[in-house]
């Protein structure tokens, strides 16, 4: 059911960042570096290739040298369309799976991919997603690219709820509660950015 080809990753930056005052959240600075840099540090060692899902002029991300892939459907239909973009791109790279993560989660764990793969295979379902504190994080997930056509059809039919769609396909939920700091803490506001700064300043 699952290929041994290493997964690719898509970093989701297609949101509008309203709670941060608009603009590109992944370019906000945390401890003197862009949020995007922190996410890349965590993800690059775990995957075979990385792309950024973002709309608008890709030149603003040129310094990172990443492929920038836009949403394949219009009107910002939510994170599922970014996952679809990642599936299509990963397939073009010869990858059987794509990991999706948001670009506002600077503390992603180094064993994320390993644990998602293990959980998915243990129960033989196509998708695995992360959880902490009894809360699932459906955009932090591993997806087989063979689901791309089904996902596109669902999106065109009006599907917007990511957890509803994953439940229909079959999803393993993986708890990461063994980490002291929530590895999926996401920066949604200036206050969150200050909290993340404090966590980094306190050290590991």
TrEMBL record:
Localisation: Cytoplasm
Main location group: cytoplasm
Gene Ontology MF: a single term: GTP binding
Catalysed transformations (reactions): Mo-molybdopterin + GTP + H(+) = Mo-molybdopterin guanine dinucleotide + diphosphate
InterPro entries: MobA-like_NTP_Trfase (IPR025877), Molybde_CF_guanTrfase (IPR013482), Nucleotide-diphossugar_trans (IPR029044)
Domain MobA-like NTP transferase: 9-165
Binding-site residues, GTP: 12-14, 25, 53, 71, 104
GO CC, one annotated term: cytoplasm
Keyword terms, alphabetized: Cytoplasm, GTP-binding, Magnesium, Metal-binding, Molybdenum cofactor biosynthesis, Nucleotide-binding, Nucleotidyltransferase, Transferase
One Pfam family per UniProt: NTP_transf_3
GO biological process, one term: bis(molybdopterin guanine dinucleotide)molybdenum biosynthetic process
Binding site for Mg(2+): 104
Cross-referenced Gene3D superfamilies: Spore Coat Polysaccharide Biosynthesis Protein SpsA, Chain A
E.C. designation(s): 2.7.7.77
Cofactor(s) needed for function: Mg(2+)
Top-rank EC class of the record's enzyme: transferase
Described function: Transfers a GMP moiety from GTP to Mo-molybdopterin (Mo-MPT) cofactor (Moco or molybdenum cofactor) to form Mo-molybdopterin guanine dinucleotide (Mo-MGD) cofactor.
Annotated domain remarks: The N-terminal domain determines nucleotide recognition and specific binding, while the C-terminal domain determines the specific binding to the target protein.
PANTHER family for the chain: MOLYBDENUM COFACTOR GUANYLYLTRANSFERASE
Subunit structure of this chain's protein: Monomer.
Family per similarity comment: Belongs to the MobA family.
Name of the molecule in the record: Molybdenum cofactor guanylyltransferase
Organism: Rhodovastum atsumiense
Lineage, highest ranks first: Bacteria, Pseudomonadati, Pseudomonadota, Alphaproteobacteria, Acetobacterales
